[in-house]
Amino acid sequence: MDAQGALDVVFQALDVVNGLRSADDQIPKQSDLRLAGSQGRLDSLSLVTLVVAIERRIGEVSGRELTLLDGDAESGLDALRTPASIADLIVRKLNS
């Protein structure tokens, strides 16, 4: 999976998160939008929902199981800051 495909997966997972939010609290699909950490748009429950939706979608499109938060150094909160950083993490993990 390339970076654009991974970003598409992140945006599809954001659709899942947005489906649980009110119409006036939707998360825009912007690759550089701060999702996690300081000034992040997602609370901890929404972030977990996003990660689970991404992992499920990766399994559907690639046939591979992927765990984003597996405790290694590259899977920390920094990797979840923006859709682009999550897409980079996906590509690294799928190609390792």
Q: What would you note in describing this structure?
A:
The protein is mostly helical and 96 residues long. It has one domain (3-23, 38-94). Helix content is 50%, strand content 0%. Helix 1 (3-19) packs across helix 2 (44-62). The longest helix has 19 residues, at 44-62.
Overall radius of gyration: 12 Å
> Biggest sheet, in brief?
none
Low-confidence spans = none
Order of helices and strands: HHH
Residue-averaged pLDDT: 92
How many structural domains? Answer: 1
Keywords:
96 residues; mainly alpha
Layout: helices, strands, pairs:
Layout: H1 3-19, H2 44-62, H3 83-94
Brief write-up:
This protein is mainly α. It has helices at residues 3-19, 44-62, 83-94.
